[in-house]
Automatic annotation (TrEMBL):
Residues 221-243 are annotated as: Disordered. It comes from Prosthecobacter dejongeii. Residues 1-20 form the signal peptide. Keywords: Coiled coil, Signal. This is TolA-binding protein.
Length: 243
């Protein structure tokens, strides 16, 4: 289409130059109109070419944008997959943390229970310690009293033993002549019987001596009553007075 128009334009220009002197005003207007039309045509063709170029450029841009959109869509799909995977991992982590939290809460409850038991045991231990301390103090007090009582009994025992030993010694040294001189009534008692009586009382005196280191069951039993025969012998024997 461009070539016929160009040929027509050239023909018109050549004719105009040849017949320029014989052109009427109507023809001149026609020529002007034709020239303007040709100029507009050229402008339209130029604009059309520009639009065609813009179209090609825009189509390239559209294709590029479509490619970018496709890439973005793929990226979005990948991100969605990654997000889903991360969400699954996060869910597993949360579940694991929940399990750990439950285990820790259970352990804390066990520790609290153990602490309460320890407190109760400690309170019981303190109570027992106080009771033992009270018993120890009581035992110490009883020990002091026992030591005092032991000392008193040892003193009394010593006095009793010394008195008994003195009586036995006098009886052992008390002969027949002394009895006649002193006019004692036990002269009728035979010597053997007197010696046996003295020996028996000596044994009893030694056995009845208090010993704090002997067991209660092992201590000798001191008779509380005197037999009739011993009463008669004791009545027959009077303790001599010191000269």
């Amino acid at each position: 289409m461009k070539r016929p128009l160009l040929f027509l334009f050239l023909t018109f220009a050549l004719s105009a130059s040849v017949f320029a002197q014989d052109i009427s005003p109507a023809e001149q207007r026609l020529r002007d109109t034709l020239r303007n039309t040709m100029l507009q045509l050229r402008t339209a063709q130029t604009e059309r070419a520009n639009l065609q170029a813009d179209k090609i450029q825009n189509e390239a841009k559209i294709q590029q944008l479509e490619s970018q959109v496709e890439g973005l869509n793929k990226k979005i799909v990948s991100l969605n997959k990654d997000a889903a995977a991360e969400q699954e991992v996060a869910k597993k982590n949360i579940d694991g943390l929940q399990v750990k939290s439950d285990a820790q809460e259970k352990q804390i409850a066990q520790l609290k229970e153990a602490l309460e038991k320890w407190k109760a045991g400690y309170a019981e231990a303190v109570k027992i310690a106080k009771e033992r301390e009270a018993l120890r103090a009581k035992a110490v007090s009883k020990g002091v009293l026992a030591e005092r009582k032991l000392a008193e009994r040892e003193r009394q025992n010593l006095e009793l033993y010394e008195t008994g030993s003195e009586v036995l010694e006098r009886l052992q040294n008390f002969g027949l002549g002394t009895a006649l001189t002193a006019r004692e009534p036990f002269v009728g008692v035979t010597r053997v019987k007197l010696q046996n009586l003295v020996q028996d009382y000596g044994d009893r005196l030694r056995d009845s001596k208090y010993n704090p280191f002997l067991d209660e069951a092992a201590k000798p039993t001191v008779p509380t009553e005197i037999t009739e025969e011993e009463k008669k012998n004791a009545a027959a024997v009077q303790v001599p007075q010191k000269p």
